[in-house]
Automatic annotation (TrEMBL):
Protein name, as recorded: Phytoene dehydrogenase-like protein
Organism expressing this protein natively: Baia soyae
Upper taxonomic lineage: Bacteria, Bacillati, Bacillota, Bacilli, Bacillales
GO terms, molecular function: oxidoreductase activity
InterPro entries per UniProt: Amino_oxidase, FAD/NAD-bd_sf
UniProt similarity note: Belongs to the carotenoid/retinoid oxidoreductase family. CrtN subfamily.
Transmembrane segments: none
Domain Amine oxidase: 12-261
Length: 439
């Protein structure tokens, strides 16, 4: 008999974990409390436009874990590679190419000639692991002895990848670990044709075509335990679910609630108190394209970036239309003081500057003043949660709040892959075949 696995949560982590195990012969049931799958990775159709909740960008795509899902379980991904030559910084009085390639480094005005050489040298040191950071030292402090231009550029780059305007608070080892991976890729950024919906549907099809079951509108309200093993999950109307392994792909606050009446509640206390990464997202659907020399512009002073999503993904717009996505970072003070409206005004100012006339062409817009893009923000002493606790042998955890590679959606995919790899390794369901295919 195949082993039974229950996956709680139908976001990117839950879907990818369930799909991989279903493909390898497990009896998988996925429980999702919402009517639709995807969690925060959803696509919202509106007046002919498909708005994605957050950027559906994958960083270091040729090294992305999604490539493993493609080859191993035959997930179909329509990669739309980002064009680095069309990425610019807005420094207020002028725009300049982002130094994302050697050509961009040569052309950019953000660095003088000496610092261009120095910046290239810093990249080489990162790639060779000469620079690794230091435990207990934040990247802002670690870079204090760098020339001002170099330090400023590295922190600016980190803002866009970590979606934060507090990049100086990123732990320095995490910073160099992340950029060693990103600098070594041939395709630093790619979008997904069809948006998040195509990935969500792809995983769901793999689950169901391999005999897995997906149940939406089912919120797990209680767990039962025998000793240190989770033995039963209770649904909202008393439905009972039993499995050999449970993968929880729900945020720490929900885990704290589920385990509240058990002796393991304290495992989640630390992660439940951490702050998420939150941003203002302001997307525009325009009736026709506004010509621009770039597809990505980062306004340094306002800490706002705009991406022409429809340049890469034509499926998100009606014929002749344009979809622009603007994101402004929020720090804790701005969130506490309710300053999201200021960010909205700042975004509109940047839209006015670089896409003049957008108001006359506006067909639809989507505005979220406090969108969570990662459940645990990787700054200061905030740590990502383990995918496994020693004291819970048949429970695993995955999501962008869990340990993995990268940031944002990559944490969801890599933590899910790690969890399923552990299950496959100790499998009673065709273990040799599973391991051979997964390698």
């Amino acid at each position: 008999m195949p082993e039974k696995v229950i996956v709680v949560g139908g976001g990117l982590a839950g879907l990818s974990a369930a799909a991989r195990l279903a493909h390898h012969g497990y009896q998988v049931t996925l429980l999702e409390k919402a009517p639709k799958l995807g969690g925060r990775a959803i696509t919202i159709p509106m007046k002919g436009f498909n708005f994605n909740f957050g950027a559906h960008a994958i960083y270091a795509r040729d090294r992305s874990i999604l490539r493993k899902f493609e080859s191993e379980i035959h997930l179909q991904v329509d990669w739309k590679d980002f064009t680095p030559s069309k990425a610019y910084y807005d420094l207020g009085s002028f725009t300049t190419p982002m130094p994302a390639t050697l050509e961009g480094l040569y052309k950019t005005k953000i660095l003088d000639a000496n610092n261009k050489v120095r910046f290239a040298y810093e990249i080489a040191k990162t790639l060779s692991s000469i620079e690794r950071g230091e435990d207990g030292v934040l990247i802002g402090e670690y870079l204090e002895n760098q020339p001002a231009q170099i330090r400023d550029l590295l922190l600016t780059v980190a803002s866009s990848n970590f979606f934060t305007n507090e990049s100086e608070k990123i732990p320095s080892p995490l910073f160099f670990q992340y950029y060693k991976r990103l600098f070594s890729t041939n395709r630093a950024v790619a979008y997904i044709g069809g948006g998040w919906q195509s990935i969500v549907e792809g995983f769901a099809n793999i689950i169901e075509s391999n005999g897995g079951q997906i149940i939406t509108k089912e919120k797990v309200s209680k767990i039962e335990m025998e000793g240190n093993r989770v033995t039963k999950l209770i649904g909202k109307e008393g439905a009972k679910y039993i499995a050999d392994q449970i993968i929880f792909c729900i945020p720490p606050k929900d885990l704290a609630t589920l385990f509240a009446e058990t002796k393991y509640a304290s495992l989640f206390d630390e992660y439940n108190q951490y702050k998420p990464t939150q941003v203002v997202v302001y997307d525009l659907g325009l009736s026709k394209r506004i010509s621009s020399p770039y597809t990505y512009i980062y306004h340094k002073q306002e800490r706002v970036f705009i991406t022409d999503i429809s340049h890469y993904d034509h499926t998100c717009v009606p014929e002749g239309g344009q979809l622009l996505q603007a994101i402004a970072y929020l720090n804790e003070d701005e969130i506490a003081e309710g300053r999201a409206d200021e960010k909205v005004a700042a975004i509109e100012t940047v839209y006015d500057k670089h896409y003049a006339g957008w108001r006359d062409l506006l067909v639809a817009k989507r505005l979220s003043k406090k969108a969570t893009v990662q459940e645990i923000k990787c700054i200061n002493d905030q740590r990502l949660m383990p995918v496994k606790f020693y004291s819970l042998p048949n429970a695993s955890f995955a999501g962008d709040w869990c340990q993995g590679e990268g940031q944002l959606s990559e944490l969801s995919f890599t933590s899910a892959y790690e969890v399923t790899s552990r299950i496959l390794k100790h499998s009673k369901t065709h273990p040799k075949e599973n391991l051979a295919e997964a390698k």
